[in-house]
Amino acid sequence: MRASLVIPTLNEAASIGFVLRAFRAAAESANQRFFFRNPIDWEVLVIDGPSTDGTADEARKEGARVISEPRKGYGRAYRTGFAAATGEIIATADGDASYPVQEIPWFALDLLEHRLDFLTCDRLSYLDSKAMTTEHRLGNWMLNFSLRAFFHSALQGAPARVLRDSQSGMWIFRREILDRLKLTQDGMAFSEELKLEVLIRGLRFEETPIRYSERWGAPKLSSWRDGARNMLFLFQKRFELSREKRQGYDQHLLEHPEGAPR
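Below the sequence we write its predicted structure tokens.
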């Protein structure tokens, strides 16, 4: 089986080598212990900003395939990476050492054994106080609350009927589901768009807690600017779904006028 790890980077030279070595060691261990009958052949794709600090060179030293993506945006990097990935399974993480990449092979096992389509990671349940600023925590709470309020019906398909961390950037999923998803966002809203699309389309979904760590280097996220854009996306997505539902109902009445209410 072939799988792909996709990592977007922007000036992560100090941490990317550590991240890739940690992942490779875990992948080799998992192949020896759990996948020895059918080892997973992992490819690593680094989608670079492009960086100016030698991130691409450091990634290549660790055996990663580097794709330069000059267009800005977190979501843009992932959409480019997904298009280039060749694995049956795709996993994601950041290049700043904040996500536990050593857990990815075990999450892939969980995905396969439980016949899931999509597994996302929850950073908030076991959050280290140093891993996220108070401002960032508040922004996450507001976005999570809004998503639950706007998309209550979609969350009926999630375990415990809740999505704890709509902004997490660590996912493991089957590549084949991408053809069923409508992914449009180039910015940070891509993360919540991806999860919402999975839930709306009724795919088999699971959320699992992880240990999220303090990032290496200065943060690139602007809590208020990116938070406002994410909130705007939620409003737009809710309106779009309501319109699609209404159009579908109107089309049903045209095809089956006997079903119209009297």
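The chain has one domain: 2-259.
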